[in-house]
Every structure is written in C-alpha cells, then in structure tokens.
Amino acid sequence: MTAFDVDGFYAAWTAGDLPAVVAQLHPDVDWPEPWSGGRVLGRSAVAEHLARQARDVRFSVVPEQVHPGPAVTVHQVVRDADGDLLSDTRVLHGLTVQDGLLRRLDVGEPPP
C-alpha cells in the first residue's frame, strides 16, 4: 500500500477544497451516502455528490486518532448553509487505500 495523506485529505475536506479531495480519490472510489444509506461509485460521481452536498451543508471533519486498518476517528461537525448546527459527533472512518488513493470510505461507530 502506498502512503495516503490522511491529514491532507481531511484538511482539504474541511476547507471545502473539493478539487484537492477528489484528487486523492481512486478512479473507482466507493463512497458512503449516509442520508440515503446507499453508496456513490466512481471519482466523477463522488465529485458531483460532494459538490451538491457542499451547496447545502458545511463539514468540519477533524482526524483525532488513526487506528490500524487504516481507520480514523474523526470529530465531525455538520452545519446547514445558514450555519445552524445539524450534528456534532465522533465517527469512525474506515479507509481502504489503493495505490496511494482512497478506494473506499466506510462510516461507523468509533471505538470506546
């Protein structure tokens, strides 16, 4: 496995730098869509999904701890376009990395 820049990925996501986020995605990335329970497949589809999402919500996704796997416990704050708080939680991101790019992202409960 080639190294994946965890901190750079989350910094770009929190900054809303979608081109930098998308540049770190594998062409065949598999991305969660937690509100519908589905998945978004492929770099261009995920880019479109994130762009649509960015019109409605703002994410702050700060890595707190990297676990083997790799997985990352993140502090995730979501606000609507007006800045009103929608959620403030900690989640576990399971990362599958291939050739230094994010191949799959899974979301779950962080370890205690």
From TrEMBL:
Listed InterPro entries: NTF2-like_dom_sf, SnoaL-like
Domain of life of the native organism: Bacteria
Pfam families associated with the record: SnoaL_2
Coiled coil segments of this chain: none
Domain SnoaL-like stretches: 6-104
Protein name per its UniProtKB record: SnoaL-like domain-containing protein
Natural source organism: Klenkia taihuensis
